[in-house]
Write a structure and sequence with these properties.
about 230 residues; alpha+beta; 11-stranded mixed beta sheet; 6 helices; 11 strands; elongated
Amino acid sequence: MTERDPLIRWAVAARDARVWRRPDAVIVACPDLSHWDRLVMDGDPDALALLVREVLPEVTGDFRPFGAEQLVAAVVERVTELEVSARFAWMETTEPVGSRAPGDHKPAWLPEDAWPEVSELIEESFPDSYAKPGDTDVRRWAGIRDDGGRLIAVAAEAWSTDEIGFLAGVTTRPDARGRGLAAELCGFVADDQLVGRERVALLADYWNTAAIATYRKLGFTLRPVAAARQR
C-alpha cells in the first residue's frame, strides 16, 4: 500500500535515504530533500505515531515529518510533541505539457558558466528559493534570455530520481513578468524530465496563487501536503 505513494517512492530513491517499515506504516529519512531534512511518511496514523516516536531519537538534526496534509495533521494529533509547521501544494503531471506561451525567447539548458547569472537572478527575484546553483542535488538550470542576452527567467531540475523528476527554483525577473515566460520554461523543463520517467513534480506555497494557477494550466494536479516539527 504505502510503497505506491509517489512521495514515498521519491524519498526512497533520494540520496542517503534510510527506511523504517512496520505493518501499515513507512517512514523514509532523507537529508536535504528539497531543502529540509525530511521524514517522509505514509500509512495508518496510529501506526505512524508509534513509528515516529521510534524514529526521531535515531536521526540527528532537524528532521521534519512530511506527507499528505490530512495524514500529517492526524499524526500530530497523536504525537503531542509535534506541531504542523507548513502546508504546501505537491503538484505533478504524468503527461507532457509542452509550451503554452508563444514567444520569440526560447528556453534552453544553461552551461555551468552561466550559474553566477542564475544566482544573481534568484537573489533578486526569489531569494527564498529552495534551489540554488551549486547546491547538492540541484542538477541543472534552464533559462530564457531577452534580445540583449540578459537572463530573465530560470528553473532548475533538483532532487530528481530515476522515476520522478523534480522542478524547483522557478522565477522571472520582475520587469519581465506577465508574458508567460514561466509557463514556457516550466513546460520545457517538465517535458525534458519526463523522458524515461513516470512523472514530474514540484512543491509550491499555497500563498503563491499565481504560480499554482500557472502549473494548473500546464496540466499539473494538486495534492495538499504538510510538514511538522518538534515543539
